[in-house]
Amino acid sequence: MAYRILTVILLFISLSSHAENWELEMDKEGIRVFLSTPQDSSFKAYRAETIIKAPPGAIASILADMSLSCQLMYGCKQARLIKQQGYDYWAYSQIKAAWPVSDRDLSIYSHAELEEDGTIVVKVSALPENVPAAKDHIRITKLDGFWKFIPIDSQTTQVIYQVAAEPGGSVPAWLANKFVVDGPFETLKAFRQHAEAIK
């Protein structure tokens, strides 16, 4: 349920600088998911890692392709690009939540950077006032995260996907935290399958 709320974001996914003491919660199918409780929140942050047999640029291009977002991002119901200026992106997404929780929506800003070693970092944060909230949706107002694509060799990339978010509304932290592992796992699994199929 609530992981569908927390994940999206990601979509395209700002480091969760207040999250630390990561604990491994899942290690399956070549994907590891860690959880941590940020200092300023009772909601768990997550960090998921895997290896994808594709170059960093190819994977980053998949992330930037909004037409693929709802195929690959866990819980995504709708996603669209609002504006792009160079490596800065403004986007909007809706997240499907399981009954009885209301669906969520999110306005986000992301910025991509290329580091000297070839690593690509896409930082993501919520911009709650940028796009009006949709009717019958609860707005996610707090989200910080990043995607990191680290080259291992010319055709292999370590992918790190990290997010700290709060689902908004009245979802209690204990309930949201029960579902925070499946979202990043399913998202990285889908990205890996897609990237390796088209390389």
TrEMBL record:
Signal peptide: 1-19
Protein's name according to its UniProt entry: START domain
Keywords annotated in UniProt: Signal
GO molecular function: lipid binding
Highest rank taxon of the organism: Bacteria
Domain START: 20-199
GO cellular component: cytoplasm
Lineage: Bacteria, Pseudomonadati, Pseudomonadota, Gammaproteobacteria, Enterobacterales
